[in-house]
Write a structure and sequence with these properties.
Number of domains: 1
Number of helices: 1
CATH topology: Immunoglobulin-like
Strand content: 35-45%
Order of helices and strands: HEEEEEEEEEEE
Length: 178
């Protein structure tokens, strides 16, 4: 009987010791940490489409006539800028007849502000700034920002002012992320 009691006492002490040390081991867990990394590729684009079928009659003049649909897109967090250049110095130039030296000046409007067409300041040299979006609110949303480019010019005072011909100017839009 004595040995049975001793065995029981040893078993009870062993169980007590096991129970006492289990929480100590559980109280000191080991951990591992990972960092999940992803990225968004910078994207910037501009598209401009001349209004299909539009043929301006210089002799009639034009008052804020839509000439192009433009879409600006940028996901640069600092924003973006859009500039516009002209190959003929902001003039419709003669293209085929004679020496091709005749030209007619125009003004431009880009987008609207509060329902009013926004005038573009045309420099004597270089490019005109059309849009300057800055800060985190400067990035585009969705498929981009749609705008319209408008043109205005006065008609010549008489039909002898310009040669009969086709007149044009090439406009170059540039978008830059900031």
């Amino acid at each position: 009987m004595n040995s049975s009691r001793t065995t029981r006492r040893i078993a009870i002490v062993a169980l007590f010791l096991i129970a006492a040390f289990v929480p100590v081991f559980a109280a000191n867990p080991d951990t591992a940490t990972i960092t999940v990394v992803g990225h968004v590729t910078p994207s910037i684009s501009i598209t401009a489409t001349y209004i299909p079928g539009l043929d301006l009659d210089i002799m009639q003049g034009a008052d804020k006539v839509a000439i192009a649909n433009v879409t600006e897109f940028s996901n640069y967090k600092g924003g973006y800028a859009v500039t516009l250049g002209s190959t003929r110095g902001w003039k419709l130039g003669q293209t085929t007849s004679g020496s091709g030296t005749e030209s007619w000046a125009y003004t431009l409007y880009y987008g609207t502000v509060g329902g009013t067409k926004n005038p573009v300041t045309l420099p004597t040299t270089g490019e005109a700034t059309l849009t300057a979006q800055t800060g985190t609110s400067g990035k585009s949303s969705g498929g981009g920002t749609a705008k319209v480019l408008y043109i205005s010019f006065l008609p010549p005072t008489n039909s002898d002012t310009l040669n009969a011909d086709t007149y044009n100017d090439t406009l170059v839009f540039t978008i830059t992320g900031t």
